[in-house]
Amino acid sequence: MDSEVVVVYAREEPPQSWDAAVFLAGPTPRGPGAESWRPAAVDRLRGCWAGSGRLVVFVPEHRHGVHDDYRGQVDWEERCLHLSDEIVFWIPRDLRTMPAFTTNVEWGMWHDSGRVVFGAPPQAPKNDYLRHYAGKFGVPVSTTLDGVIAAALDRIGGGAPRTGGEREVPLLIWRLDGFQRWYAAQRGAGNVLRGARLLWHAGPLWGMRVAVEVAAEGRVKDNEVVFSRPDISVVVLHRPGPTLDETVVVLVREFRSAAATADGMVHELPGGSGPADPLRNAVEEVTEETGLVLDPARLHPHGARQVNATMSAHRAHLFSAEITGEELAAIRGTGPHGQVDLGERTYVEAATFAEIRRARLVDWATLGMIAEALTTVRPRG
């Protein structure tokens, strides 16, 4: 597709494909003689769009002039705000002709979305509160229209081609490895993304409601939520006993807010997310959470699987390592470990495989990983 900029005005239907989408949020003239700032913004976007595909610009004004008929306007704006990769808030507030009261509400809804830029002339009144929250959430800020447009385009870069339901996945999620891996699996199964609504995100963590056409069933399933985080590495450190049940496994005890346990603590395997290399991550997590330094050559890989495939798209890369009696004694009962200054505190414990099962020390996913490791790498007496 050749480079182009397509302007979509209020209540007009968005095109079925694009590489990037921008919404021009801000005050609309309400008094005689006041001119809209949006034509200048569109001109700037046309002149600066450097992508090789299509940039869509949503303009919440009527194509043939500003008017006060808002039937369907709110629904249209809500839809197009969610479709946008970047929302440009330019607020040349004038309390007489462009009071921007509605803009204040929109800013409150989107200021922490991770896809807004904020701009206002220095002399525009009543913007200090908005600027405060822009600073608090790291929103790019400019005092010129050119500057705020440049900030939006800088984050968009060249965009990414999307069509149909893919348009509803904003670039900040589309570009994540976790999303692309999940989506590649769906496409590989012949499924089609018919719709999406981003519910929450924090860096590489995200949650999204999706509508997926299930090829094998000839239907659209639209009542599920997908969560994702970076893949994790998990390590089963074990000291073989005479039998499988007598094999000792190293666990770490840690407070987890989601734990529905009597003391709010969970028993889990050393592990977590980190660098892209799962093996390196595994070694670092063991050291961080137990204090044990392992040669990577000692770790046996067991592959990667989803941990909770009914809801979360991330995978656990499972490793195991046999440890000596001296190593077990040295780390048993130690702590706190982890990134203590960031609130992570882990304490090393150990239990036999039989104790883990009978005392219900771990959740089902963790129990499955332990069973996989211990039955694949046979314990030695």
UniProtKB/TrEMBL annotation:
<dbReference type="GO" id="GO:0016740">
    <property type="term" value="F:transferase activity"/>
</dbReference>
<dbReference type="InterPro" id="IPR039470">
    <property type="entry name" value="Nuc_deoxyri_tr2"/>
</dbReference>
<dbReference type="Pfam" id="PF15891">
    <property type="entry name" value="Nuc_deoxyri_tr2"/>
</dbReference>
<keyword id="KW-0808">Transferase</keyword>
<protein>
    <submittedName>
        <fullName>Nucleoside 2-deoxyribosyltransferase like</fullName>
    </submittedName>
</protein>
<dbReference type="InterPro" id="IPR015797">
    <property type="entry name" value="NUDIX_hydrolase-like_dom_sf"/>
</dbReference>
